[in-house]
């Protein structure tokens, strides 16, 4: 398969030019053996390290050349998605907990050039000798400090020790306070720090609940209006309580936390990305390393325990040069942690109605393995499904399925016209994603 140059890759991704961080990171990675990249969430770090990595791959070597470790399943999936969308011509696969081991075995039978994974699953495969390590020249530890935080130090150390021929090590983080552990073996680090360059337009506001916090939360959502945002809780039990109340009040939303099945986590993010749900109710698992759109607000329903958690939660909004608001929802007797400073006390309008999203998600039984493209799906929905351009939303293509956002009012029409139709010789089943 022919390998594409960077200009072709950027054109395929619909990117006119790289930002300053991506340009500097690319230069550093191509010229240095040890790189530490510090940059805020949402600035394009994934593409920043993938572009130079792909440029240095050997097209004649048929085993793994690059290993990328990520602290969460969602980040591993996100990196894999970006790498696939680049269309470089190199095989890319991701392995992570919650995914069937049989799928890993199939993917690793014909080794990818780039393997992405969570430390636990990658270490497990190393113990089983699932793949050859001799050709792995580049190691990327994406959000490395988060991997350490969530308890992967032992596995990361084991992985580093199992890669004797490393020539390049790349670490990334969205946190200023980052100490590179000695076991990674970096001695001459080229450090790029873009955290201080961030011009945040974050507006920090405190809303005091004089009565029931759940009631105040619904009032706050109504006050905010039609924006897109995350409501943060500390515990999954809190999420259940809040979720039940929001459903009772007719507020559509998704939930995202560690106790969910992997498929439910993935679909919650998918619906949030495509606008089916404008609100995501989540633990700090959603504060970093997940692929979600630019959002208008976040709400601290429960205040975080640590300053870093507060920073990362807030980092989901007001990204790059965009504005955003972080609301702190404080009970009348609650104490605000010392690290939360400078918040404006505001009063909100109560009793405002909350409108539902105009989008819904359709599930199609056909995906990349059937040689189906986004263009194929869009063409089908426009020509045979009778949709206008503004009635078709985001299309997400997976290996065995495709997920399409359409206007709710048109969902039944599309299903009626397209269910059991054929695309690329595949008979399609189309249903509303529950």
Q: How would you describe this protein?
A:
The chain folds into 3 domains: 6-193, Rossmann fold; 201-259 and 272-345, Rossmann fold; 359-432, Alpha-Beta Plaits (2-Layer Sandwich). It is built from 14 helices and 20 strands. The chain is globular. The chain has helices at 6-13, 20-31, 45-55, 73-85, 101-109, 119-127, 144-149, 153-161, 213-224, 236-248, 262-273, 307-314, 374-383, 408-418, and strands spanning 34-38, 66-69, 92-95, 114-117, 138-141, 168-173, 190-193, 201-209, 229-232, 254-256, 279-282, 297-300, 323-331, 344-345, 359-364, 392-397, 402-407, 422-423, 426-427, 430-432. Strands 3-4-2-5-6-1-7 form a 7-stranded parallel β-sheet, with helices on both faces. A 7-stranded parallel β-sheet has the order 10-11-9-12-13-8-14, sandwiched between helices. It is an alpha/beta fold and 434 residues long. The longest helix has 13 residues, at 73-85. The mean pLDDT is 91.
Keywords:
434 residues, alpha/beta, Rossmann fold, Alpha-Beta Plaits, 3 domains, 7-stranded parallel beta sheet, 14 helices, 33% helix, globular
Number of domains: 3
Principal-axis shape: globular
The share of residues in helices is 25-40%
The largest sheet, given as strand count, sense and whether it forms a barrel, is:
7 strands, parallel
Give the name of the CATH architecture of the largest domain.
3-Layer(aba) Sandwich
CATH level 1 name of the largest domain: Alpha Beta
Mean pLDDT score: 91
- Derived structural class: alpha/beta
Name of the CATH homologous superfamily of the largest domain: P-loop containing nucleotide triphosphate hydrolases
In terms of per-residue confidence, which ranges show pLDDT below 50 for 5 or more consecutive residues? none
Q: How much strand? A: 15-25%
Cα-atom Rg, whole angstroms?
22 Å
């Amino acid at each position: 398969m022919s390998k594409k140059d960077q200009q072709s890759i950027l054109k395929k991704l619909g990117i006119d030019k790289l930002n300053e961080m991506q340009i500097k990171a690319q230069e550093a990675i191509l010229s240095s053996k040890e790189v530490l990249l510090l940059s805020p969430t949402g600035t394009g770090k994934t593409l920043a390290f993938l572009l130079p990595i792909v440029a240095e791959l050997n097209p004649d070597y048929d085993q793994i050349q690059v290993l990328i470790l990520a602290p969460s399943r969602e980040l591993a999936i996100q990196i894999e998605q970006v790498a696939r969308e680049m269309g470089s011509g190199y095989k890319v696969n991701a392995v992570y907990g919650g995914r069937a081991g049989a799928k890993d075995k199939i993917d690793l039978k014909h080794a990818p050039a780039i393997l992405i994974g969570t430390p636990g699953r990658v270490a497990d495969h190393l113990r089983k000798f699932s793949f050859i390590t001799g050709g792995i020249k580049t190691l990327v530890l994406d959000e490395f400090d988060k991997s350490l935080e969530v308890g992967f130090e032992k596995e990361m150390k084991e992985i580093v020790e199992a890669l004797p021929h490393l020539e390049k090590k790349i670490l990334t983080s969205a946190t200023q306070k980052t100490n590179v552990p000695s076991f990674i073996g970096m001695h001459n680090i080229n450090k790029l720090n873009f955290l201080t360059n961030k011009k945040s337009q974050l507006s920090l506001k405190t809303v005091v609940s004089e009565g029931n916090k759940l009631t105040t939360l619904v009032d706050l959502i109504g006050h905010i209006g039609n924006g897109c945002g995350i409501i943060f809780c500390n515990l999954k039990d809190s999420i259940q309580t809040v979720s039940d109340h929001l459903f009772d009040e007719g507020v559509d939303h998704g939930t995202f936390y560690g106790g969910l099945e992997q498929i439910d986590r993935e679909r919650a993010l998918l619906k949030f990305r495509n606008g089916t749900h404008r609100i995501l109710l989540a633990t700090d698992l959603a504060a970093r390393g997940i692929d979600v759109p630019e959002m208008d607000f976040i709400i601290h329903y429960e205040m975080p325990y640590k300053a870093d958690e507060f920073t990362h939660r807030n980092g989901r909004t007001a990204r790059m040069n965009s504005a955003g608001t972080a609301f702190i929802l404080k009970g009348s007797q609650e104490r605000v942690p010392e690290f939360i400073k400078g918040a404006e006390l505001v009063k909100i309008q109560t009793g405002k109605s909350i409108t539902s999203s105009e989008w819904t998600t359709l599930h199609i039984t056909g995906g990349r393995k059937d040689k189906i493209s986004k263009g194929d799906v869009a063409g089908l929905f426009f020509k045979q499904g009778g949709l206008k351009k503004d009635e078709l939303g985001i299309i997400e293509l997976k290996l065995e399925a495709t997920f399409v956002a359409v206007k709710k009012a048109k969902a039944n029409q599309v299903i009626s016209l397209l269910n059991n139709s054929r695309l690329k010789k595949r008979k399609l089943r189309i249903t509303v994603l529950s």
